[in-house]
């Protein structure tokens, strides 16, 4: 059983300070233990539990929306029979990773990072944390900062303003703050939203509610996939888990990339196939055109995945229904729609989205000068222009998150090896192409992306400044390409001076 550190550490000095004990931070630590066993590191986690998303969210049915052989780490095969896995299984997998790599003693829970400042003169980061629930603060120093904080605000989800909420006599809950004691058995439930959270909640609750309704303003593309991978199961039996892992992983990457590429190259055909897949699983009279045919092209927004068509089974059985309309206001007994229809409800779930937040809302600075992430440009989608000795991990939007995390962690270890070999103490990416156009870090049209992406670092349009959402391209530049690049400025400690960031801001 994982026994993470909960002591109120007041200081520590390490080579690498990892922020976040979710799938990215744990992955970074495991890579350091394996590839650089002499490197000292610590993991700071603001909450009182490891796991990030998978310990934070507790709503019914929480699960992966990517296949686990690729969402899991490349160095640790996924062994459970479920390919689309429940949240508690993913959390168990992360705890096993912590145990197997002996990471527990490096994790400091309840340490929310408030600010992090880099000193060019000292060549080190100083990080201030606040203990959860108190005003106590601690200070850590490190040569490198690795941000594994994800891209969502763990404090608050997104809920639009609904008129009349105060009039509703029932319970309103956001999935990010799901009450442990919420009893939905026999109740009339309305789930507002049509994204991954909503389509997970509906079939998970449908068997116990009196009736559950998905209320959406507009539909999303929904793809039914098997929860168990028959080919993967056969390969595991024939070859053993470790040998089969690479083949299954590659198979799944090729399939997912194939669907994505087909969506972009032939959107009309892909649209017809996706909608036909839905139509095949619903009763003949069901209005698929209204409720499951989006107005945008496939993969303009992330594809929603349902294992074994569970959402469609709940609808076909009459336990769940879908309404596509706009909300006029909440009433005492439910929701009045723009069409005049009223939906009665005992519980309303606002599955209306998440709030994007760069780098855990940490205040970053270099030599006393505040760093606004949106003013920086991402180098190889893992470092920030003008910010020394910092790496971050943000996963793919069109593929399993962890595939990118693994590549970033591998490249980070190679970068440290390169610096040690050549006697370098600091490295900073310098935007050496001032005329290059800068664009948003990701280009999905989802509302949550549009609301938050301008707070994130920008991407460039050429060279190492592009943000690749293509695994095969990242393999080439992060795993195979040399570490050294003309955009990187390496220095020894004696060369670093307090004014050195001016070069990085060009």
From TrEMBL:
SUPFAM superfamilies, per database record: FAD/NAD(P)-binding domain
Cofactor(s) in the UniProt record: FAD
Enzyme class: oxidoreductase
InterPro entries associated with the record: FAD-binding_MO (IPR051820), FAD/NAD-bd_sf (IPR036188), Flavin_mOase-like (IPR020946)
One function term, GO molecular function aspect: monooxygenase activity
EC number: 1.14.13.-
Pfam families xref list: FMO-like, NAD_binding_8
Family: Belongs to the FAD-binding monooxygenase family.
PANTHER family per record: MONOOXYGENASE, PUTATIVE (AFU_ORTHOLOGUE AFUA_8G02570)-RELATED (PTHR43872)
Name of the protein in question: Flavin-containing monooxygenase
Taxonomic placement: Bacteria, Bacillati, Actinomycetota, Actinomycetes, Kitasatosporales
């Amino acid at each position: 059983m994982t026994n993470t550190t909960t002591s109120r550490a007041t200081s520590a000095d390490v080579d690498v300070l990892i922020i976040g004990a979710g799938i990215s931070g744990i992955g970074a630590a495991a890579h350091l233990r394996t590839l650089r066993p002499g490197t000292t590191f610590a993991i700071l986690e603001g909450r009182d539990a490891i796991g990030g998303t998978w310990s934070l969210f507790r709503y019914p049915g929480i699960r992966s929306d990517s296949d686990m052989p690729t969402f899991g780490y490349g160095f640790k095969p996924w062994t459970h029979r479920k390919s689309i896995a429940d949240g508690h299984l993913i959390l168990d997998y992360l705890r096993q990773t912590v145990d197997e790599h002996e990471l527990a003693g490096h994790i400091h829970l309840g340490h929310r990072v408030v600010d992090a400042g880099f000193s060019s003169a000292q060549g080190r980061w100083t990080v201030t944390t606040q203990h959860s629930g108190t005003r106590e603060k601690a200070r850590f120093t490190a040569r490198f900062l690795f941000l594994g904080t994800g891209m969502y605000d763990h404090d608050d989800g997104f809920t639009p303003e609904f008129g009349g909420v105060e009039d509703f006599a029932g319970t309103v809950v956001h999935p990010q703050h799901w009450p442990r004691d919420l009893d939905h058995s026999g109740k009339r439930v309305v789930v507002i939203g049509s994204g991954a959270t909503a389509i997970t909640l509906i079939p998970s609750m449908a068997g116990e509610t009196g009736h559950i309704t998905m209320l959406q303003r507009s539909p999303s593309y929904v793809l039914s996939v098997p929860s168990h991978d028959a080919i993967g199961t056969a390969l595991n039996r024939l070859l053993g888990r470790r040998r089969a892992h690479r083949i299954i992983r590659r198979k799944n990457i090729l399939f997912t990339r194939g669907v994505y590429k087909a969506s972009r190259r032939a959107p009309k055909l892909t649209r017809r196939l996706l909608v036909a897949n839905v139509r095949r699983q619903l009763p003949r009279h069901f209005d698929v055109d209204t409720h499951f045919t989006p107005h945008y092209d496939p993969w303009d927004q992330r594809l929603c995945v349902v294992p074994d068509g569970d959402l469609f089974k709940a609808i076909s059985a009459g336990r769940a229904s879908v309404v596509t309309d706009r909300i006029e206001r909440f009433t005492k007994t439910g929701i009045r729609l723009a069409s005049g229809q009223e939906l009665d409800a005992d519980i309303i779930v606002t599955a209306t989205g998440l709030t994007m937040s760069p780098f855990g809302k940490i205040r970053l600075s270099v030599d006393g000068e505040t760093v606004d992430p949106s003013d920086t440009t991402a180098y190889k989608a893992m470092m920030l222009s003008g910010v020394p000795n910092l790496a971050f991990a943000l996963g793919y939007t069109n593929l399993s998150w962890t595939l990118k995390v693994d590549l970033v962690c591998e490249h980070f270890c190679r970068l440290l090896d390169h610096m040690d070999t050549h006697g370098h103490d600091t490295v900073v990416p310098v935007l050496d192409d001032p005329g290059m156009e800068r664009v948003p870090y990701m280009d999905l049209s989802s509302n949550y992306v549009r609301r938050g992406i301008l707070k994130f670092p920008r991407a460039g349009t050429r060279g190492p400044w592009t943000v690749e959402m293509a695994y095969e391209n990242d393999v080439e530049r992060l795993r195979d390409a040399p570490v050294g690049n003309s955009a990187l400025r390496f220095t020894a400690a004696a060369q670093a001076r307090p004014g050195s960031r001016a070069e990085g801001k060009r």
